[in-house]
Amino acid sequence: LLVAFKPGTPGAQIAQAHAAAGAQVIKRFDAIGVQLLAIPAGAVEASIALYEHNPYIRYAEPNLHRALILPTEGRDPMLPTGLGTEYLALQWGINNTAQPLYDTASGANVTGTLDADIDAPEAWDLSRSNENIRIAILDSGVECTHVDLLGKCIEERNFTASTTTADVIGHGTHVAGIAAANTDNGKGTAGVGWNARIGSLKVCHEWPSVDFPLLGMCDVADSVAGLLYAADNGYRVANMSYGSDPDPYSPSQAEADAIKYAWSKGVVLVAAAGNDYASTRHYPAAFPEVISVAATDRHDNLAYFSSFGSSWVSVAAPGHDILSAYPNVACGIPPDDPEGCYNWLSGTSMASPHVAGLAALVLARYAGITNVQARAYIENSANAQGALGQNFRAWVRYGRINAHLALTADNPPPPPPTITLTATGYKVKGQQKADLQWTGSAASSMDVVRNGSILTTTGNDGAYTDPINRTGGGSYTYKVCETGTAACSNEATVAF
Known about the structure:
By secondary structure, this protein is of the alpha/beta class. Helices cover 19% and strands 27% of the residues.
């Protein structure tokens, strides 16, 4: 279970609640006030009900499992071979010249459509990002010794129950290559983010544990851990090429809190919209702070598997028959082979890192901008019409990304509004309370943040009272942020 207690809950009350449920604390996510608990087998629903009847509980929910499944299996193109071969000509999503490419559906070579791409070469003339822009690859791990990723990995972290940081599935390595493979090095593929560096934050574990199944499991608690780590360790972009499966599609409140926390720390959040060719919302993509990404094919059509929905999917990007790095063992070669292994995969998992790589270009091009502004550059510059005249906005809110346009915006997005906050502390019958008042925001709702953690979300009426309900002394630092953005007020502190 994932359980969140109300701020200020006495430790004795927390221990009593856990004892009543027969629960043990496995992890604590202090930044968002959440605990991961082990409970007796078969007692999920009963334990949730027990916690929800406790007046000290904010919420209790199962630690959901998400499936990491690619939509295509079977007839992929033969793996590229040849020492030092450069495969940029096969990356139609980066530069589509109507070149003939292998089609997984027919097994034949099929030409694409001219300019059904993201205009990456034109964008690279303006920005190639830099090594200070870090992309967190929240996935199944990354083979950092791959020739196309050498020197790219800042670190490898494992947040799962897996015993290895290695990418046993292959998914994370493929995603990392799309976002930031070594580019213009005379071999392999080109990464959209060029000079950006990555962190392998393993939040999806292999299931079953065999060599290269196209299946992995991503626990919400591991997603939360990866997001909080990325937010606190200097990552500017986070890519999440995973999502909720059909049972259930409902969001996790703990993950929502982690998303809000990462957004408040300035991280550009990008996620795959899902592969069920329906408008059903997948999470984390459907959270408002996240750039949700659908997939297109080499003709600028919505890919046959891609989820869609102009009310919640932000943009589209190439995601069908995408060539990228793959763990070398899949090609039967050593981990440090100078040629490297490559493979074609399809999915919104492949579309999402195109956007993450673009975010790295944007952040370098417009130094000093916020994640709010970076997102606006990406979304507002997207092509509303496809290479064959398709109306992208029938499928997504903004269109298919265009890297060149994102880097040549005539009207930069405005900075976040200036929000002014004041806080007054007082006591009622010895109990601490704090009155907050703010001006300068026209948002419909605001997140109230206390000591770095989101306390609650409230309507934007300019005032909120925090019923701290503690006695004695202490101090509390507050700020308010527009829900779904990084626009926050100054900090205001009350002391008792």
